[in-house]
């Protein structure tokens, strides 16, 4: 199997079938370039797998890999005209713009609550279905969100990532640190 191309051109390619596997490494399947309208005629004909030199992720089209490379380069070509915040992906700017417009296109059929992102609506739906897909391997407790499980795991690991800058005391939860900080500032709850 031959590898050709240069880092600057982002056209490193490996022969293989898009969407399959190359050397037992499955190729990336996150959306097609045809759907995004970003695939050129040359790319439609080129069915080789593109490989990121930084992390070895594989892509079926060059434009998807170029977008991915922004993770490594830090490039953020899309800028919000309202607040100046920059984004590496156009979709992220589009979603961000809803914070300025107030648009909430995703509506819960159960309670009519509206959301700016589809993923947030899907997580919200678990409050109605009772689904708890994240399970603690230590104690079998289940959670509706991955972030909540990660916070819970600190009970078992003893990790305390939040540190008071004034006295050095450490906390497993950010809210506990914020409450503690009131001792130093004299702020009342």
UniProtKB/TrEMBL annotation:
SUPFAM superfamilies: beta-beta-alpha zinc fingers
Cellular-component GO terms for this entry: chromatin; PcG protein complex; transcription regulator complex
Residue ranges of every copy of the C2H2-type domain listed in the record: 50-77, 78-105, 106-133, 134-161, 162-189
Alphabetical keyword list: Metal-binding, Nucleus, Repeat, Transcription, Transcription regulation, Zinc, Zinc-finger
Similarity annotation: Belongs to the krueppel C2H2-type zinc-finger protein family.
Start and end residues of each stretch annotated as Disordered: 1-45
Biased composition (Low complexity): 20-34
Transmembrane segments: none
Species annotation: Branchiostoma belcheri
Molecular function GO terms recorded: DNA-binding transcription factor activity, RNA polymerase II-specific; RNA polymerase II cis-regulatory region sequence-specific DNA binding; zinc ion binding
Primary gene name: LOC109477131
Protein name per the record: Zinc finger protein 695-like
Pfam families, per database record: zf-C2H2, zf-H2C2_2
Tagged with keyword Repeat: yes
């Amino acid at each position: 199997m031959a590898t050709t191309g240069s880092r600057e051109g982002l056209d490193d390619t490996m022969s293989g079938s898009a969407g399959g596997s190359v050397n037992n490494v499955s190729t990336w399947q996150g959306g097609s370039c045809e759907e995004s309208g970003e695939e050129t005629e040359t790319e439609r004909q080129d069915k080789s797998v593109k490989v990121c030199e930084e992390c070895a992720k594989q892509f079926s089209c060059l434009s998807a890999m170029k977008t991915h490379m922004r993770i490594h380069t830090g490039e953020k070509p899309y800028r919000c005209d309202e607040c100046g915040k920059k984004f590496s992906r156009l979709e992220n700017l589009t979603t961000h713009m809803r914070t300025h417009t107030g648009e909430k296109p995703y509506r819960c059929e159960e309670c009519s609550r509206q959301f700016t992102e589809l993923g947030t609506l899907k997580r919200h739906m678990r409050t109605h279905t009772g689904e708890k897909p994240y399970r603690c391997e230590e104690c079998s407790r289940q959670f509706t969100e991955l972030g909540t499980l990660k916070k819970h795991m600190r009970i078992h690991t003893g990790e305390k990532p939040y540190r008071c800058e004034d006295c050095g005391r450490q906390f497993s939860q950010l809210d506990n640190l914020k409450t503690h900080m009131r001792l130093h500032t004299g702020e009342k709850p």
